[in-house]
Amino acid sequence: MTQPDRRRDGAFDFPDLASLPPDGGGEFNRLVFTSSPYLLQHARNPVDWYPWGNEAFAKARDEDKPIFLSIGYSTCHWCHVMEHESFENDEVADFLNEHFVSIKVDREERPDVDHIYMTICQAMTGSGGWPLTIFMSPDKKPFFAGTYFPPGDRFGRPGFMRVLRALSEAWRNDRAKLTGMGDELQSKLAEAMTVTDGDLPPDVLTRTLETFKSNYDSVFGGFGPEPKFPMGHTLSFLLRRATADDDTELLQMVEHTLMRMYRGGIWDHLGGGFCRYSVDRKWLVPHFEKMLYDNALLLMAYADAFQVTGSPAFRSIAMDIVEYVRRDMTREDGVFHSAENADSEGVEGKFYVFAKMDFDDIVGEHADILSEYFGVEPAGNFEHGLNILHIAVDPMEWAQRHGLELDEMQTLVSDAKKKLFEARAQRVHPSLDDKVLTSWNGLMIAALAQAGQAFDRDELIDMARRAADTLLDRMRDTDAGTLLHRLRGEDAGIPGFLEDYAFFAWGLIDLYQATFETRYLAEAVALTEEMLERFGDDGHGALYFTAGDAEQLIVRTVESHDGAMPSGNSAAAYNLMRLARMTGRGEWEQRAEDIMRAFGQQLERHPAGSTVMLTALDFARGDGREIVLAGKDAAAVAPLAAEVRKRWTPRSVLLFHSKENSAALRDLAPFVEHNTAVDGKPTAWVCRNFACEMPVHSASELGRKLDA
Q: Which end of the chain is more exposed for a tag (fewer CB within 10 A), N or C?
């Protein structure tokens, strides 16, 4: 469905920045000069905010003040709550301005800063989240951490003003204790970041599956108690193991989870797209923000599930994700915005929910049975008597009970969704975080390229190509030549992190296999070489989160946990395994193993927290193949490529060799030199460990080889 003209919540009208003094003047603070949508949300706060940078730390040193560091992101509900309650409060602002230097950080722009101080918060309090609240010395050493604080004492939490007064007094009267705590925390953080190599557990893949099976929710799908996160990359890993082991129980768990998530309120039944997570076991009540990375990883998972099962339902859901991203998350130049907010008009979920009376008026004569279908209740299933739309019935049983044929049911539901979508479109839409992150875009490029191949939809591959070309054109430092992290408007900046290199290379690898354009493989190889040089360390196999020439924080971090997103190390290991098979560079396979071995002890203790790294291990240990198609041009080998793509072959790689691309491809993958078109006919070579079987020319012959 096409979105009518939208009224966006939280639109920021830029003043004439050249006319403002350096501190922002009377109406604004220094954040008015930044690009981050999250920081701009706070640009009118009475708090004298500084962005992260030397100016703030110099002021803290010169005035001998502690630093209040607040980290969040633009679509974070509780970040907005704390802003309204505290940062817009004159009493709070006056106290902060007198006794502290206040720094505001967008965690999505500076994941390196967030990673350090979130680790500190979790170590000090046993939990974490956003807004992240840190108090630290001018040399960046923290001595107090927390998350959301109400303005006054409530929820069993001390009020923010109480915290401020206590810490200000401690800074004046018990400085040694605070600085001692900071030194100790820095030491513990550095120790926690120490990587100790270990053997890769031989049974780690099996043990991981046992963990997921023991935590499986057989009623509503998913793993573990609420809150429940979609974790598309975990579901894709489980699909790999289900097919490798012919494990029908595991396959059923993944299918059930994918369908229960879709039926829940975490899925937007009118506009498409998944919200970030569900606060309840049933997937009913989400935090309503929509993140680009979630929808990328879930697009991969639903495309994978379609290829494994052939179920048109999975293809339909995946295509609705694509339509949401195309309509609401895509810039004119083809790259993708970061997120949509949970809140509109100051209320979480207001854009998405319906009162029963409004629902009935919109859908018309069949309101009673449609209310049953969408779970709309007079008293509401959410706050304030409002309803989150979800599929509350078994659709076929519901249709049968109401005497509806399949086509009648589909038309009735489709017409209702169209009416509801058009009515909802008249509301104030949640704000859009319109910055472009290289890392998240890399994941969406990979997802679109994979889905385009799975569904034989060229328009998806074209979306991936446009985004990749824009990133390749815009996201390089013109002086250093290195990758950049963030683009907003025309402003590209912030040196790239490990995840930018790893996720973008991931996308380029899949885009090459979808288009056979050798330049994308060349860019993936170049990015990977640069990544290994800039983020590696001779002392251990792991890669650092930041480059060696990046801003030096209190510690240089290493990350391997695959949480809501894969870690950079996991994605790097997966890329290296695939590129090793695509290029014949055995040293890259060894480099991938070095990364995995660096986290061997972690994989031994908690393998379920590293499913993308286990995907790399699955690739390494699996019976993969190098498939080389050779012919005059891509059109000539299209039937052979279609035969490959209609199968799910997650442990294989696909290359295309033609006379036109031969020199460029042989530079990247010398082993293809002899994999040419035999007698000038389109030819398929199926190889294992670069030892190739006899070539074939027809799709049917290739199919038999792939199925053998």
A: C
